[in-house]
Amino acid sequence: MADTRTKLMDAALRVLGDRGVAAASARVIATEAGVNQALVFYHFGTVTELLAAACGRGTEARVAAYRERFAAVGSLSELLAVGRELHAQERRLGNVAVLGQALAGAQGDPALRPAVADALARWVAELDQVLARLLADSPLAGIADSTGIARAVAAAFIGLELYEGVDAAAADDAFAALERLAVLAEVVDDLGPVARRALRSRLRRAGAPT
């Protein structure tokens, strides 16, 4: 029984990545899984519940695969290097496309939204831990919002997937710009105490959250 559920979830992810959410019907997913269409409803009740379960299972597996790499990151530049690797591998495996299709499906299916939001939240939580650790000893500590930055990065990865599909060079330029910002942030880390205080004061006056 568990094997059939797993087959259906894996098939649902393949259909999302290869054919898009519009093609993710019970018949198509069951055919992809090599099982009877009725088993979709027996195990999951609805196609939406199947897609939700598949997204959760797939995301947790991918997050777990990078957890040790995230834990070993020691700088923003290293984090972006891991991000480039993650993006390339997830794109090659079709997983970023799957998440993009799930997001598109959630726009028209409110029942799918919690599962997709949870999938994104799992990536955000991992990134937030890394960013909070990296920023803890920075002049930006207490000013930069690690959770907000993590959410922006997660959203950017989805956008880069779409961008890369129509203009790969421009998407690569976007990554390069982020890398330059990471270098700038590391230069800020090397500022002396007087310059650090001046920077923090200037950021607060500019209305940065404290």
Automatic annotation (TrEMBL):
MF terms in GO: DNA-binding transcription factor activity; transcription cis-regulatory region binding
One Pfam family in the UniProt entry: TetR_N
Database matches in PROSITE patterns: HTH_TETR_2
Superkingdom to which the source organism belongs: Bacteria
Residues passing through the membrane, by range: none
Keyword tags: DNA-binding, Transcription, Transcription regulation
InterPro entries: Homeodomain-like_sf (IPR009057), HTH-type_TetR-like_transc_reg (IPR050109), HTH_TetR (IPR001647)
Feature: DNA-binding region: 25-44
SUPFAM superfamilies the record matches: Homeodomain-like
HTH tetR-type domain mapped to chain residues: 2-62
Keyword Lipid biosynthesis appears in the UniProt entry: no
UniProt-listed Gene3D superfamilies: Tetracycline Repressor, domain 2
Protein name: TetR family transcriptional regulator
